[in-house]
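Readers outside the structure-tokenisation community will struggle with the description of the input data as it stands. Showing the layout once, in full, would remove most of the difficulty. For illustration, here is how one protein appears when written out as sequence plus structure tokens:
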Amino acid sequence: MKKLFALIPLLLLIPVSSIAERDMGLFGKNYLAFQGVNSQDEMGKDTMDKFLRFQTSVVYPMITYGDHIKFDVFSEMEGTIGLFEESQPVRNIDYAPGASLHWNPNETLTELRTGWLHGSNGESGDSSRSWDRGTLTATLEGDMGRFHIIAKPSIWYAFQVSNGNPDIATTEQFGLLVDDLGGSLVLSVSYSEPDGPPTIILTGEVMNHMGEISAMWNFNPNWRDYFFYASARGGIGDILKEIDEYSQSFNVGLSFMP
């Protein structure tokens, strides 16, 4: 079964146009990358584990009211696969389905979205981790010459948390990750040639438990939806199964423009 899960990153090779033909769209991050994670071995020596990391997400519009109000359902899937190991084990698969109602009021406040988001690693017993959150996100956009700036402040309230390991439930790290009230801020700056698509996108994201910076570069104008992708992140809860562990990781690969 885990070998079948290892084929999931191939979903990222589906062209954006074929998804659009099904009235679906890409949502959030979509990438396939090599990942290095700083860790320590059994002797306490610093080492770097190597993985193939992927994230794919789709959104399906359910109801549209006029030109500004929409209701949709979406799902994100993120995971890592071990490299340079005989069994090529799937380290984790995290799932995040949800539903949201969003309103597009004007050209500056381009979206105000509220909804429900579920997170789960799809496992049972001591390895089980899941939560449910109510979310509210605003999207603000503006232009400065050839630069396009996007700011996304978000707040959430966790109204259900499930953790199969009681030892983890008492840790300070777990409490920080699943705090009843939390939030995040995403800042993105993109550069475009006149009348052209974005060629460079720089993004920073901070949450109450993690931070990430990333860069995307469109390497071929004829492949406008494909970007070289590089990112660095640090914090706790990078994957749900190791929800109480601090980690630093670096990712290099290919991304799709959402």
